[in-house]
Design a protein that fits this description.
Largest sheet: 6 strands, mixed
Strand content: 15-25%
Number of strands: 36
Strand order of the largest sheet: 2-1-3-4-5-6
Helix content: 25-40%
Number of helices: 29
Shape: elongated
Radius of gyration: 36 Å
Structural class: alpha/beta
Distance between the termini: 74 Å
Length: about 775
């Protein structure tokens, strides 16, 4: 805000410059004889003015310049002796009252505030405090000291001693409550040393008999000490009531105008309630809300009338708040989160649409999307949407239509009202829509009871989200295709320029053979196909997969990260000549989706899979799945090596015998895999973050150093490194558990390159 300090005499320049530096203002003046006209020409240049000089002269300066208190600049005047500073114009609307107190803090002058609102406030609060106290400690001490039935709206000003002028907790509290902070010089206290009970500590450290009582009585010389020094947690408070309280109450002849303030309480922790909201609650005489919300702010409701209503009676709450405001009451209608987002504010506006206007204010807060995003990291750092799954006020078909639009546009989304007893399957339908257009590997976050004592956080994939149970206390954030998870947290890159999006069909030659790789064999097969003259596109599912593929493939091959949903993947394949599925034998979901897409698009589908070498090795114990392998490994060993990748490590937490062994893991250097491994609870010194293949000698050395006594691997086929693992285990005389391939029925299944290349060639 632009501020000016106008001096009537050059002798006041040094004072003006001192004040200007402190309050962020410009010092202005004019030559003798032209001063008044110069001020009139400059009047509109600043929103606030301090005139240093006689009040009579200042009054003549502004005469004829005033138009409306809503738009006029504020004007305060201070005498050159710095004894008094008086707001002349714009006390409330322009901020002249606040300016007067600010100047008083700099100079030691007494602020003389004459607006009616301040005249009707009769309490002056004196505060002394220990160094470093928090605003919350100040808050608790003041509310404990206030007389019965009195609140923040009864306080005219807060007063302390000069050595506490910059005490952060005190300044923050006064600012947050919208109360002026007045400073009294230590020398003034020495001239009025009366206290009800001297303080030895204050006398010894400040050479004063006390602080809170003298400063309050100095600020209100005709006042009466109604609450003697009261101390709580390092904060001492005294309350003085103006001696003319009865007279002042008679000045309020006009009926008080009501006001309805809609207050946001945030995620359910008082630390997240902003000062503006707290001030609104403090200034209200009536507070309306759901009982749980009022319990949250119970310490701030002393002396107020509470109107508690059940959770489902939103309309009744809004009608009650409006009714009270129409009666001239100061009303706070409270809601969790942000009251303007899926909450009460819009209902109030609907009800007021055809009623006479009342004064209203909406105070924003922290909504579930932003509070949960902050707990997870920064997943909403680019374009995002919010979607409520409650169909109480919105038809379900509309919710599904919006979910489809969000998924198709690949926006990150925060899901509100995720699941309730009346619609247990709704969230699953929404997740199915998301999976049609987003990759199953999309990074997602689940937050339950955000910012409360029993808070729960989890980061997972969209596919894993399908297996999760939710409730109405849960918020789900689904990322976009670029959202990543790192050891530091979940985040979405903030700009388009660094994003590597999948190529569009228009960027890729028509009639290309799409090879879905993810293995060394898949890349080798793609190279062989391009050597036969085919146009080839290799699709992988991670950024790390792109790096590996680009280093291994012929430069004529296009590489795309097709970590997208089935619907988007089907769109990308619409111009393909054929699909060669060379994905990992354990990647069942992608193979099933590719077969379905090829059938829908009438595309030839060929499955290449490494031949199995497990029967030939005649070593190792075969097991059906990862869970069975974990249980068996805990029986056979105490230090178990998992050569199975990181994807299923989350199952360790649910394994009843996981605590019977120490687990050691080796997996490819992919950031998402590292996050999964760390979340599983495996210590960092038991993780190996490396890219294979690994020789039998390497395996033997690593396992000997780690004192491994059991190995778990997967039946990945010839060339996968399984033979080298079994050979190393045999040298060390330790058991090997082999998770066998999942049984799937493929059309056109091949286990050698030549057969695949021949069949693709027949399509030309």
């Amino acid at each position: 805000m632009s501020r000016g300090v106008w001096i009537l005499r050059e002798q006041a320049r040094s004072i003006a410059e001192k004040i200007a530096r402190a309050i962020g203002a410009e010092v202005e003046t004019a030559v003798a004889g032209e001063n008044r006209q110069a001020f009139r020409e400059r009047f509109a240049a600043h929103r606030q003015w301090l005139i240093i000089g006689a009040s009579g002269v200042a009054t003549r300066y502004v005469s004829g310049l005033l138009d409306s208190k809503k738009s006029d600049p504020a004007v305060a005047v201070m005498d050159e002796a710095q004894r008094f500073v008086i707001p002349l114009v714009g006390g409330h609307e322009g901020g002249a009252n606040d300016l007067a107190y600010e100047v008083a803090r700099v100079t030691g002058a007494s602020p003389v505030v004459t607006t009616a609102t301040e005249a009707l406030k009769t309490l002056v609060i004196g505060i002394g405090c220990r160094k470093g106290v928090s605003s919350q400690q100040i808050d608790q001490a003041v509310f404990a000291a206030l007389p019965e039935g009195r609140g923040i709206d009864d306080i005219r000003e807060v007063v302390t001693v000069d050595i506490k002028a910059n005490e952060a907790g005190l300044v923050d509290w006064a600012t947050g409550q919208g109360l002026p902070l007045r400073i009294v010089a230590s020398e003034q206290i020495a001239t009025r040393p009366w206290v009800s009970k001297p303080s030895d500590w204050v006398q010894e450290n400040l050479d004063l008999p006390g602080v809170c009582e003298p400063v309050a009585l100095i600020a209100c010389p005709r006042g009466e000490l109604v609450v003697a020094k009261s101390c709580l947690d390092g904060v001492c408070v005294a309350v003085v009531e103006d001696g003319e309280a009865e007279l002042m109450s008679q000045l309020s002849l006009e009926p008080q105008k009501g006001k309805l303030t809609m207050v946001s309480l945030g995620p359910g922790n008082r630390d997240f309630i902003p000062p503006r909201a707290r001030a609104a609650i403090a200034n209200a005489s009536e507070v309306v809300g759901y009982g749980l919300y009022l319990d949250l702010i119970e310490p701030w409701l002393h002396g107020k009338t509470e109107h508690r209503m059940p959770l489902t009676q939103e309309k009744a709450r809004a009608e009650k708040a409006i009714e009270l405001a129409e009666q001239g009451k100061q009303v706070a209608l409270v809601s969790s989160g942000d009251i303007g987002i899926y909450a009460m504010a819009t209902l109030v506006f609907e009800l007021l649409e055809k009623k006479p206007p009342i004064e209203i204010e909406v105070i924003p807060g922290i909504t579930a999307a932003t509070s949960c995003a902050a707990l997870l990291g920064a997943p909403l750092s680019h374009d995002f949407a919010t979607l409520s799954l409650s169909d109480l006020l919105c038809p379900w078909q509309w919710i599904e239509r919006r979910a489809k639009a969000i998924a198709e546009s690949d926006l990150a989304v925060a899901l509100y009202n995720v699941q309730s007893k009346s619609r247990p399957d709704g969230v699953q339908r929404i997740l199915d829509i998301m999976l049609q257009h987003k990759s199953p590997q999309t990074v997602c976050g689940v937050v339950r009871n955000a910012c409360r004592e029993d808070q729960e956080l989890r980061v997972c994939t969209l596919a894993e989200l399908k297996e999760t149970q939710f409730d109405m206390l849960t918020t789900v954030i689904i990322g976009n295709q670029h959202t990543r998870n790192s050891p530091a947290g979940m985040f979405s890159p903030r700009g388009y320029l660094d994003w590597k999006s999948p190529k569009k069909n228009s960027d890729i030659a028509e009639d290309s053979v799409w090879v879905f790789a993810g293995t060394h064999d898949g890349n080798a097969l793609a190279n062989a196909l391009v050597e036969k003259g085919h146009s080839v596109v290799v699709s992988v599912a991670t950024d790390y997969g792109v790096e590996v593929a680009e280093s291994a493939l012929d430069e004529r091959i296009s590489v795309v990260n097709a970590a997208v949903g089935s619907g988007k993947r089907r769109e990308m394949l619409s111009g393909a000549k054929a699909v060669v599925d060379a994905s990992h034998p354990f990647a069942q979901l992608i193979s099933q989706d590719l077969m379905a897409s090829c059938q829908a698009l009438d595309l030839p589908y060929f499955r290449y899979e490494r031949p199995s070498n497990f029967p030939k090795l005649k070593k190792g114990e075969g097991l059906a799945d990862f869970k069975s392998a974990l249980l068996r490994a805990a029986e056979l060993g105490k230090r178990v090596f998992l050569a199975t990748g990181a994807k299923e490590l989350a199952l360790l937490k649910d394994c009843p015998r996981a605590g019977d062994a120490e687990w050691f893991v080796r997996f490819a250097p992919d950031a998402s895999s590292l996050k999964i491994a760390l979340d599983s609870g495996i210590p960092r010194n038991q993780l190996c973050f490396m890219q294979g293949p690994f020789s039998a000698d390497f395996n033997e050395t690593q396992w000997r150093d780690w004192k491994i006594d059991c190995v778990v691997t997967r039946e990945s086929g010839e060339g996968s490194g399984m033979a080298e693992k079994i050979e190393a285990a045999e040298r060390l005389l330790i058991p090997v558990l082999v998770i066998q391939r999942p049984a799937m029925s493929y059309p056109n299944l091949f286990d050698d390159f030549a057969a695949v290349i021949e069949r693709v060639g027949e399509l030309v």
